[in-house]
């Protein structure tokens, strides 16, 4: 079953490594376009407040719980739940669904990441630079509509992620994210300063941060909660897997809080890098997903040295996507290599091949398979729906029920106080009540609303 137990299990070796890898998972395409766009179109600072509340009441408690379980069991996500569940109760199914969710998310995430990678190279070649959004739009459409380009870029992404995972947890994931995360902050800072220095940039800042409470409705609350969940990579075994690489003396609640705050900071900086520039050149801020690939190139084309800034921007987005994908693929890789004892190289290759197969349907969703639909959705949208609207919330609720009602308060307190070494009783008391009563109810409400159960 599991590998030679006399061999020490790989894990994160330093506090900075823990922070870089975990933040690497949280930071992703969610920060670079989803957060700024949603904030801008859903009430600015008002939306930010709802998002913060959702993060504190749902995101943070679930993330802490997941990391706690992983660190306690020191095993892959499926083995963790088998080890911790009493009387052979099938709680491991929660992790099995997590593995499935990771696969589905990877299938479409690698495609979007492929476009981002492609744009780094296209930006270097200068081919994307045009102040006319019609031209940048045509360039984007011709890329996603070309089956060869779509597949090749997805494979490039898979090979990069697989290559890093092959090196292992400390020498691969930790070593790489320790280098990439500081670079990400540096690029973001340069781009946000550049954006704010443009004449007319203040309108963009106002769009992003001026509260408009009239815009806050059930739909906005729903998207804020969904974003909080997706952003912190919870409800699908990712944080459980990374938690199993945490050191025993790591302060889990404090580390998690730092990751959450740094993630929020990245999102805010991304908004500051994008919207002041968008407004300064008179572009449409509510372009949604297309903002990244169509509006942004046109914005940069208006700036002196626009080419250099555009390369920096898409490099930054690629870095963000890499950390997130490493954590996604590590879920199945660790389950297969540890539970089945197949070894990391074989498991990584199997997972890459599976993803190349499963992901190709998503990659071709804008070309060859555009008309293949199930429940009215193409494969890209279907995988997105099943993973983020169904599997992630169900996983989150199950996790809260397990921790709050099965694992119990005593173990929760012991695990998160590092056996009493940390003086955090009051915090843990409140946290446990939130995990037991508040988070599962909120996640359920959001899930049902997302499925249109209330009409
Ligand atoms: N948190 C990532 C983002 O914001 O883009 C996405 C993600 C990564 C979701 C890992 C889930 C996950 F397990």
Explain this structure to me?
- The chain is mainly α and 455 residues long.
- The chain has one domain (3-450): Up-down Bundle (Amino acid/polyamine transporter I), CATH 1.20.1740.10.
- The protein has 18 helices and no strands.
- 4-fluoro-L-phenylalanine is lined by residues 25-26, 28-31, 105, 230-231, 233, 236, 238, 324, 327-328.
Quick rundown:
This protein has 455 residues and is mainly alpha-helical. The chain is 75% helix and 0% strand. The protein has helices at residues 15-26, 29-41, 45-73, 77-84, 92-125, 133-144, 147-166, 169-196, 202-209, 218-231, 238-243, 252-280, 290-301, 306-339, 344-363, 379-407, 409-416, 425-450.
How much strand?
under 5%
Query: In one word, what is the shape?
Result: globular
The residue ranges in which pLDDT falls below 50 over 5 or more consecutive positions are 1-6
For the terminal residues, how far apart are their CA atoms?
48 Å
Can you tell me the CATH class? Mainly Alpha
**Small-molecule components bound:** 4-fluoro-L-phenylalanine
The domain count comes to 1
Helix/strand/pairing category: mainly alpha
Report the order of strands and helices: HHHHHHHHHHHHHHHHHH
Number of strands: 0
CATH architecture classification: Up-down Bundle
Tally the helices: what do you get? Answer: 18
Q: Provide mean pLDDT, rounded.
A: 91
| Fraction of residues in H or I helices | over 70%
C-alpha Rg (nearest Å): 21 Å
CATH topology: Amino acid/polyamine transporter I
Going by CATH, the homologous superfamily would be Amino acid/polyamine transporter I
């Amino acid at each position: 079953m599991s590998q030679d137990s006399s061999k020490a299990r790989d894990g994160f070796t330093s506090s900075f490594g823990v922070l870089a890898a975990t933040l690497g998972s949280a930071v992703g395409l969610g920060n670079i376009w989803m957060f700024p766009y949603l904030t801008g179109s859903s009430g600015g600072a008002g939306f930010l407040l709802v998002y913060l509340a959702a993060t504190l009441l749902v995101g943070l408690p679930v993330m802490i719980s997941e990391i706690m379980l992983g660190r306690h069991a020191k095993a892959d996500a499926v083995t963790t739940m088998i080890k911790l569940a009493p009387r052979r109760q099938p709680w491991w199914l929660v992790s099995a669904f997590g593995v499935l969710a990771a696969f589905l998310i990877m299938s479409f995430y690698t495609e979007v990441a492929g476009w981002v990678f492609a744009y780094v190279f296209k930006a270097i070649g200068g081919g994307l630079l045009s102040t006319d959004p019609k031209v940048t739009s045509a360039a984007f459409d011709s890329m996603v509509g070309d089956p060869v380009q779509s597949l090749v870029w997805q494979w490039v992404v898979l090979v990069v992620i697989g290559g890093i995972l092959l090196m292992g947890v400390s020498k691969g994931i930790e070593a790489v994210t320790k280098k990439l995360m500081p670079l990400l902050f540096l690029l973001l800072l340069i781009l946000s300063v550049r954006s704010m220095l443009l004449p007319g940039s203040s309108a963009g800042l106002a769009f992003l941060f001026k509260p408009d409470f009239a815009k806050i409705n059930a739909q906005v609350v729903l998207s804020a909660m969904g974003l909080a969940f997706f952003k912190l990579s919870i409800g699908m075994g990712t944080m459980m897997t990374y938690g199993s690489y945490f050191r025993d003396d790591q302060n889990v609640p404090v580390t998690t809080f730092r990751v959450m705050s740094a993630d929020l900071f990245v999102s805010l900086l991304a908004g500051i890098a994008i919207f002041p520039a968008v407004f300064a050149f008179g572009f449409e801020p509510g372009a949604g997903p297309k903002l990244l690939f169509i509006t942004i190139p046109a914005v940069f084309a208006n700036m002196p040295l626009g080419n250099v800034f555009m390369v920096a921007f898409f490099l930054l987005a690629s870095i963000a996507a890499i950390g997130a994908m490493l954590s996604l693929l590590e879920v199945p890789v660790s389950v297969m290599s540890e539970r089945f004892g197949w070894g990391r190289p074989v498991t990584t290759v199997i997972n890459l091949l599976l993803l190349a197969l499963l992901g190709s349907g998503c990659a071709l969703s804008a070309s060859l398979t555009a008309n293949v639909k199930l429940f009215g959705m193409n494969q890209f949208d279907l995988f997105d729906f099943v993973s983020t609207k169904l599997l992630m919330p169900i996983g989150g609720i199950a996790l809260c029920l397990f921790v709050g009602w099965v694992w119990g308060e005593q173990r929760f307190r012991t695990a998160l106080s590092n056996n009493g070494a940390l003086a955090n009783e009051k915090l843990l008391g409140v946290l446990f009540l939130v995990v037991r009563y508040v988070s599962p109810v909120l996640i359920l409400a959001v899930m049902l609303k997302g499925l249109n159960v209330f009409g």
